[in-house]
Amino acid sequence: MTNHVSRPSIDDSEAITAARNQINQIDEKLIDLLRQRFQTSALIGKIKETANLPVLDSGREQQVLERVVSLDPDPTTEKYLRNIFEEILKNSRDYQHDLAGDDVTDNDIKEND
After folding, report:
1. Nearest to 41 by CA among 74, 88, 84
2. Which has the least CB within 10 A, 19, 23, 101, 106?
3. Residues 96, 42: contact at Cβ < 8 Å?
4. Residue 10, CA atoms < 13 Å, CB-side half-sphere
5. Measuring CA to CA, which residue among 92, 105, 111 is closest to residue 45?
6. If we measure between CA atoms, which residue out of 2, 18, 22 comes closest to residue 10?
7. Burial of 18 per CB tally in 10 Å (0-12, 13-18, 19+)
8. What does the pLDDT look like over 46-70, one tens digit per residue?
9. CB atoms within 10 A of CB 26
10. What's the pLDDT tens digit per position in 81-105?
């Protein structure tokens, strides 16, 4: 039995290249927005440190996740957006710990709870 794989046509190659260029442009915007988010997270971390508040605020994180999911009109991407934002939140916490000079990581907190 022979596996017949068709070669992409020039139109397919051009369409893929155009779509990849669009992805690159979106990635650039995401990087800028994530950079802004980390700057704001750093500010929140400083406020928490001054007020002796813990980095982890699970109630707030749940609100963020619920809000993010509600903003997406496509239910087929809900779990993927939730996963992405869970990682963003985790990295924001880790960043706040790093800026505060904490030796505690998110995994340490979960293991010790």
Report:
1. 88
2. 101
3. yes
4. 0
5. 92
6. 18
7. exposed
8. 999 999 999 999 999 999 999 999 9
9. 10
10. 999 999 999 999 999 999 999 876 5
- Type of residue at 48: K
Q: For residue 22, what are its two tokens?
A: 């669009």
Phi, psi of 7 (to 5 degrees): -75, 140
101 DSSP 8-state letter: T
Query: Whole-angstrom Cα distance, residue 101 to residue 87?
Result: 21
Question: Whole-angstrom Cα distance, residue 30 to residue 80?
Answer: 16
Q: How far is the C-alpha of 113 from the C-alpha of 102, rounded, in Å?
A: 17
The full length of the chain comes to 113
Q: Which residues contact 44 (CB under 8 A, 6 or more apart)?
A: 96
Where does the chain show beta strands of DSSP type E?
none
